[in-house]
Structures are given as structure tokens and as C-alpha cells.
Design brief:
heterodimer; A: 736 residues; alpha/beta; Rossmann fold; Helix Hairpins; 10 strands; 65% helix; 7% strand; elongated; B: 77 residues; alpha+beta; SH3 type barrels; 2 helices; 6 strands
């Protein structure tokens, strides 16, 4: 039988490293029921027995203020694991024990893994482990998770403790006279009324009432309003008394006393320092340079450019393999299947769809590898620290920068890994605002659209135009974030209070596991939905197509073209190499290609998407868009570069390769209804309108609700349309 | 000896926390990280735009925004 144990501890205490050391690759990620918080589990087999290990989230406390902490607490109470393995950073003992004390207050068996013993030793920190264990009344095992040292002893201690089946008494510490008296009184009430005693220890419930813990108070109110009111009146009395006499409140007092309790333990010769504990460590000396007022920002820009380069230059190499593979698959299908709908479905719907999903995989892998490195090394926290002042102005968090850069803050990124990069943000409101605004950045797929339009209308000032486009997207994204944070996602900024962990070299194992996990989740969760939508969009651009009569018209054209020009059968001309044809046949072949393109244009115009495009012309004309542009923009929902190829079809130029837009940009520069103003309007619209559907799916997954995904489609499109109309109308007025 | 707000401390200045105001989530978060009366702190640096502030407490490094530092009173020499 396997024993359930839960790993818990402060962030940066080496918890994840220990989890990886214990479980190896035998782990999987799920969700806690009903919430989007991740639950990591793994199996650990050893001589001491088999353990089912749950990696609880890294937290500093067990308050009710964050979802993570509530989830961790609920898990401990409801699933009651056989033991909490509390990872404690030996080089940072005092603060780490604050969480341990809260576990002990809850009365669940705890075993302390005193981790990073090597770091502590290097800093001249000596810990009397037996004494610590004796004073805390829990087993303490020294470990070094990175090297696996202490792992066997830890598992044996856990197994022995569980087998010993010792009864655990909740830790009782003094929180000061006033609170202790109130606690006794409340504990009496709770016991006599059996108030929540089936779930929580009586004194703990009383403590939570005094801490003004909204989760427990809410639960209590539902359970028994009378007892609840009675307890709250005691709390009110103590609160008033503490405010009058000491100018504090119970919650503050309790936290202060927990630290007092820890301090009193450590003072009993548990910890001795061979050097000043606040002496500058190597890490601090690095920081004096890396977060320096002047050097810091320069280094940060260099690192961001490096990450960007790493993701999009090296990630492009395997991405090319994927593309080549799906291109090859497409050509095989091309040859194997007869012309017709099935072929179109297989090639344009399924192969392109699957290719579209998997095409992002290398980018996601490379990005997570880079970000995990920055996160695990401790640099990400420094970046948040340096940039917080700027991003806070717009209701975001210093850590938001990463998502913006990856999405195309430096033109050419991708919003799919960008949206996923918001995972490094721990503040829920700031995170949501970030993931809703990163799609405004100029991703690599929007660039061909801009290149096309700039080449056609602003060829003298290409560089300047591209710079302006980047600036517009940044300003727009930040202002929209500000708007969201003062309306829909309103609320106080989440407290910033953040630890700067010492710089550490990340472990390769940790990086690989993290990267693999994220990538696999993307493939698994997003893959199926994206494939479905891809087929749906293919259908919209294909059906109902031309009816027989309409097809007949084009067929007649072909026959007419050939009449008197050539005696060679048309089929033969179509398939022959141009060099092998006589001049007369060659001109027939060119004519045929023209007719094919006209037929494709007519087919597109007659499809559902085409009809929508035509139908929307009445509205879109205010922004300067005709039906061709409308269809192209609808196609852009598949992927932004499709705007270019669809415009090509709509202008009867055939499918235009987004990399080779010369012919299309020439055509546009002379086309009716087009001018610099239309181009500006379309550029603005392209920056701001609905993200591509892959991004939309990712937003739904990351925000935990399809509501936000729908919001981003509707709101962004409305915003884009409003801005384009404003630009086009005001521009028209000035120009006339 | 003078009591000033944490925000007003200079880089490299040390002191002892006298009181921590602030209730609710912010008050709790500040205390959870060990910013409680009696603790020694030293300002280690400030971000490029002089906010947030970075300080040393109990042997580790902590950063907080200036408007959060306003809740903390420190006794300095």
C-alpha cells in the first residue's frame, strides 16, 4: 500500500527539486477539483516503502488571501495525507519556520526536511538538528535536494513516523495575554457546540476567527449562525481592546507572536552564526551590479534580447522541420487523393490544422526552457523588481514584461507562448490583465501584413513605419490594461512584497521536466480544440462554393480561350512544363491560370466567410475596408498571415505566399479604394482586432474560462474597429 | 535615535522595526515575510526608478513597494 505524503514549503526552498528527486519522471499534473490551481503528483518507491507524493504549492503562509493557500489548506484538511513533509531552507531558517508553525497549529503530522544544508554551511550557519527537533517536537532530517543527499534517511524517518502512529497534538503557543484568554473562551464555546469540530481542531477555528479568516468565518456562518455570532462578538471585543491598549489588531498580533515563538526557539542555541548573517553574500555582490540603477536596465535589455533570440532563432529551426514535414505530408496527400472536397479537407483542414498546432511546439519548448532558466536562477524576480514601477502605473506587475516581450513586444514574437508565459505571475488580477493585453503585441504572423502595406504605401519610410507600429501596439496594450484594471478587473494592486532569492544555477533535470510538462499540456489541452476549429474555419472559407451553373461559366471561358489558339488538349497544357510548350500553348496556359484565379476569387466570395465579408461591407466602409479586406480579416482569425494570402485570392492573384508579397503590394498600391489612409486604418485594425484562434484557446485555458476568451474576441474587435474608423474618418476630413 | 517610515530610509541605512500598520491582505503579507516589530532591517538598494525598495532581513533579501513601506515604522540611529 502506498502512503500519501504532501510536500510543502516556501517558494525557493528547493521544494520542486526535492519533488523531482523523489519521484523522478514518474509524475503527472492535474487540477484540484473546481479550481485552476495545478496539482502535481508522483510516485516514489524506496526500501522504506511506496509513497504517493503530492507537491503542494509553494507558499509563505496559510492565510485565506490567495487561492493557492486556501487550496493547500483544504487539501491538508480534507485529504489528510499521512504526513506533511515540510521543506525548510536551512540558510533561511527563521522565515521558513513561520509556515511550519502554521502546519503544526493545524495538528497534522509534520516532518521537517532541513534542506540546503550545504548553502547554510557555506554561510557559516550551524544548526543543532537534534535540539531543533526536540523543541519543535517533530522529526527533522537534513537534506540537500540538488544532490539527493539525505533522501533515504528522510523516507525512512517518514515511514517510521507513520508506522509509529503517534497522536499529534496541535501546537499551542502563546499569542499574548489578551488573545490567549479569548482563545480559551472561544475554544470552550466551539467544543460545547461541536462547531466544525469534525473538520478542524477547535482552537484552530478560534484562531482563524481572530485572524479574520473569511473562508472559515463563511463556513461557520453557514454551519451555525448563532455560534458564529457569538464567536464574532468575542473577536470584536478583543479587537477593540487591542486597538485601544496596544494600537494593533488580533491578526497582526498573532503573526508577531508566531515570529516571537520561532525566535525564542532559535535563541536556545539552535542556530549559531560563524559570521554576520546579514553579511553580503556572493549573490548580493552580483546584485549590486545586476540591479544597479544604470547598469541594471542595460543588462536586462540584453537578457531579454537574448531570450528572444534564443526562442525565435533557435526555435525556428525545429519549427522549420515541422513545416517541412507537414509540407511533405501535404504533397503526398496532393498526389494520392483525387481532386475535390475530400482532398481540400485533408490538406487545408486537417494537415494544415495539425501542422498549425504542432508548429508552435518548438516555440513553446524553447520559450519555457529560457523562462524556466531565468526563473530558477532567480533573475526573473530581479526583472520584476526593476520594472515594477513602470508596469504598476498600468495596473500590471513587474513580471508582466516577460509575456509582453515573448508575444511580440520586440516585433516578431508569438502570443501563444506569450499567453502561457503569464504563468510566472502570481497576482491573479495582474495576470488576467496581462494575458488579455499581450495579443496586441506584433507577433511574427502580423508582420507580413505590415510589410505588405508598408511596402505598398510607405516605401520611403519603411523603418520609421515599422517603429511606429511597434510603439502603437505597446501604448495601446498598456492603456487597455489600465482601462481593464479600472473597470472589469478593478481592485487594489496585489501586494508586491517579494523575496529576491539568491542566484542559483538551475538543475538540468528541473528545467527539462518543467519544459516538457508545459509543452505536453499545450499539445494535450489546446490540440484537440484547435484542430476542431481549424476544420470549422476551413469549411467557412470553402462552402457552399460555386454551384454548377457558375462553374460552367468558368468552364466556358476556358473552352473559348482555347478555341482557335491550340489543338493540344487543355489537360495536357495544364500539366506540362512551360518550357516544353509552344509560344501559343504557353499563352493559353497563362490564360488558364488567370481563369483559375478568377474562379478561386468567385468561390471565396460565395463562401460563408465571403458572404459575411460582403454583408459587413456596409459597416466596414467607415473604416475604409471593402469586402475583399473583410474576408481577408476573417481569414486572419485562423492565423494573421492568412490575411495576406486571402487578400491575394480576393484580388485574383491566387494564393499569395506571405514571404513574397511583391505582386500583391503592387496591385494594392494601384487598386481602387486603396490609399495610405486605408493602409493605416488596416494596420491599426490588424494590431488590435481579435487574436488568432490558437491564442483565443490558450486564453480560455489560462484564464480558466471561455468567458474571457469570448471577451477578448469581441472587445478587441470592437476596439480595433473603433480606432480604425476614427483614424479613417478623421484622416479623410483632413485630407479633403 | 529617530523613528521614520521605511520609505524614508537611505540605501545602506539600518534600523529596527517599531511598528507595522496595515490590515487585511497587505498587512498579512508584510508580516508573513517577517516584517514584524523588533526585527533588524537594512536597506540594500532601490530599483532604477527608486521604487520598489530592497532590504535585508533575517539573512534574506526582500523587496516591497514604497507605498507598502509606508506602513512600516523603523527606529534608526
Amino acid at each position: 500500500m502506498s502512503l500519501a505524503i504532501a510536500l510543502a514549503g516556501n517558494p525557493n526552498s528547493g521544494k520542486t527539486t526535492l519533488f523531482n528527486t523523489l519521484t523522478g519522471a514518474r509524475q503527472h499534473v492535474g487540477n484540484y477539483p473546481g479550481v485552476i490551481v495545478e496539482k502535481k503528483q508522483g510516485i516514489c518507491t524506496s526500501r522504506a516503502g511506496q509513497f504517493n507524493v503530492v507537491d503542494l504549492l509553494g507558499t509563505y503562509s496559510l492565510s485565506a488571501y490567495s487561492l493557492e493557500e486556501v487550496v493547500a489548506r483544504d487539501f491538508l484538511v480534507n485529504e489528510s495525507p499521512s504526513m506533511i513533509v515540510n521543506i525548510v531552507d536551512a540558510s533561511n531558517l527563521e522565515r521558513n519556520l513561520y509556515l511550519s508553525v502554521q502546519f503544526m497549529e493545524l495538528g497534522i503530522p509534520v516532518c521537517v526536511a532541513l534542506n540546503m544544508m550545504d548553502v547554510a554551511q557555506k554561510r557559516g550557519i550551524r544548526i543543532d538538528i537534534d535540539r531543533l527537533s526536540q523543541l519543535l517536537n517533530v522529526p527533522v532530517v537534513p537534506t540537500i535536494a540538488r544532490s539527493g543527499e539525505g533522501k533515504t534517511q528522510l523516507l525512512e524517518t517518514i515511514a517510521a513516523q507513520i508506522a509509529g502512529n503517534k497522536e499529534v497534538v496541535p501546537l499551542k503557543i502563546s499569542y499574548g495575554m489578551d488573545i490567549d484568554v479569548a482563545l480559551d473562551e472561544m475554544e470552550g464555546i466551539i467544543r460545547s457546540d461541536k462547531f466544525l469540530t469534525g473538520i478542524y481542531p477547535a482552537r484552530w477555528t478560534a484562531l482563524k476567527y481572530l485572524e479574520n479568516d473569511q473562508q472559515i468565518i463563511g463556513l461557520g456562518k453557514k454551519k451555525n449562525p448563532e455560534v458564529d455570532a457569538c464567536l464574532l462578538s468575542v473577536v470584536k471585543r478583543v479587537t477593540r481592546h487591542l486597538d485601544a491598549t496596544l494600537g494593533t489588531h488580533p491578526e497582526g498580533m498573532i503573526a508577531d507572536q508566531r515570529y516571537g515563538f520561532i525566535h525564542s526557539i532559535l535563541k536556545q542555541n539552535v542556530v549559531t552564526y560563524a559570521q554576520d548573517p546579514n553579511r553580503l553574500q556572493q549573490s548580493d555582490r552580483i546584485d549590486q551590479f545586476v540591479t544597479n540603477r544604470f547598469a541594471g536596465p542595460v543588462i536586462m535589455v540584453a537578457i531579454l534580447m537574448g531570450l528572444y533570440h534564443f526562442t525565435f532563432t533557435y526555435g525556428a529551426i525545429p519549427m522549420g522541420w515541422f513545416e517541412a514535414f507537414f509540407g511533405w505530408l501535404g504533397s503526398v496527400a496532393e498526389g494520392a487523393l483525387p481532386d475535390g472536397l475530400l482532398k481540400s479537407l485533408v490538406i487545408s483542414g486537417i494537415i494544415d490544422g495539425v501542422g498549425g498546432v504542432l508548429g508552435f511546439v518548438p516555440l513553446i519548448m524553447f520559450m519555457f526552457l529560457g523562462i524556466s532558466f531565468l526563473e530558477d536562477s532567480g533573475y526573473l524576480a530581479r526583472m520584476a523588481y526593476m520594472l515594477d514601477r513602470v508596469f504598476r502605473t498600468f495596473g500590471l506587475h513587474g513580471s508582466s514584461v516577460m509575456a509582453f516581450i515573448v508575444s511580440g513586444g520586440i516585433a516578431g514574437g508569438c502570443a501563444v507562448p506569450g499567453v502561457m508565459a503569464t504563468r510566472t505571475l502570481k497576482s491573479p488580477k495582474e495576470r488576467l490583465a496581462t494575458l488579455l493585453t499581450v495579443p496586441f503585441m506584433n507577433c511574427g504572423a502580423k508582420l507580413p501584413v505590415f510589410v505588405l502595406l508598408v511596402a505598398a504605401f510607405f516605401s520611403e519610410n519603411k523603418a520609421l513605419a515599422m517603429l511606429a507600429i511597434t510603439l502603437v501596439s505597446w501604448v495601446g496594450a498598456l492603456l487597455v490594461a489600465r482601462l481593464l484594471r479600472s473597470t472589469l478587473i478593478r481592485g487594489e494592486a496585489t501586494p508586491f512584497v517579494m523575496e529576491l532569492p539568491p542566484y542559483r544555477l538551475p538543475t538540468l533535470k528541473g528545467l527539462l521536466i518543467h519544459t516538457w510538462e508545459r509543452t505536453w499540456q499545450y499539445v494535450k489541452k489546446a490540440g484537440t480544440v484547435i484542430l476542431g476549429i481549424s476544420i470549422l474555419l476551413w469549411a467557412m472559407m470553402t462552402f457552399p462554393g460555386l454551384d454548377l451553373d457558375q462553374k460552367q461559366v468558368f468552364e466556358m471561358k476556358r473552352i473559348k480561350l482555347a478555341q482557335g489558339m491550340t489543338a493540344t488538349p487543355l489537360e495536357e497544357i495544364k500539366t506540362a512544363e512551360p518550357a516544353a510548350l509552344s509560344p501559343g500553348d504557353l499563352s493559353v496556359k497563362q490564360g488558364l491560370v488567370q481563369i483559375d484565379m478568377q474562379e478561386a476569387q468567385a468561390g471565396l466570395k460565395n463562401s460563408f466567410a465571403g458572404r459575411m465579408g460582403v454583408g459587413l461591407e456596409g459597416v466596414s466602409k467607415f473604416a475604409g475596408f471593402d469586402w475583399r479586406t473583410n474576408i481577408a480579416l476573417l481569414g486572419g482569425f485562423v492565423a494573421k498571415e492568412v490575411v495576406v494570402s486571402t487578400l491575394g485570392t480576393a484580388y485574383s492573384l491566387g494564393q499569395v505566399d506571405p514571404e513574397e508579397t511583391g505582386s500583391l503590394s503592387e496591385r494594392l498600391s494601384t487598386a481602387e479604394g486603396w490609399g495610405p489612409l486605408t493602409a493605416v486604418s488596416l494596420i491599426i485594425f490588424t494590431i488590435f482586432y481579435a487574436p488568432c484562434f490558437v491564442t483565443v484557446v490558450c486564453i480560455a485555458k489560462e484564464a480558466g474560462s471561455w468567458k474571457w476568451a469570448a471577451f477578448s474576441v469581441i472587445f478587441n474587435t470592437a476596439l480595433a474597429f473603433g480606432l480604425s474608423v476614427a483614424v479613417y474618418q478623421i484622416g479623410s476630413l483632413i485630407m479633403s | 535615535m529617530a523613528t521614520i517610515k521605511l520609505r524614508e530610509m537611505q540605501v545602506n541605512q539600518a534600523g529596527v522595526i517599531v511598528s507595522v500598520k496595515g490590515t487585511g491582505e497587505l498587512g498579512r503579507r508584510i508580516r508573513d515575510m517577517g516584517l514584524v516589530p523588533g526585527k533588524q532591517i537594512k536597506v540594500q538598494g532601490k530599483a532604477p526608478l527608486l521604487d520598489p525598495v530592497c532590504l535585508r532581513i533575517m539573512g534574506f533579501t526582500l523587496t516591497l513597494r514604497n507605498n507598502e513601506a509606508d506602513y512600516i515604522l523603523v527606529e534608526v540611529n
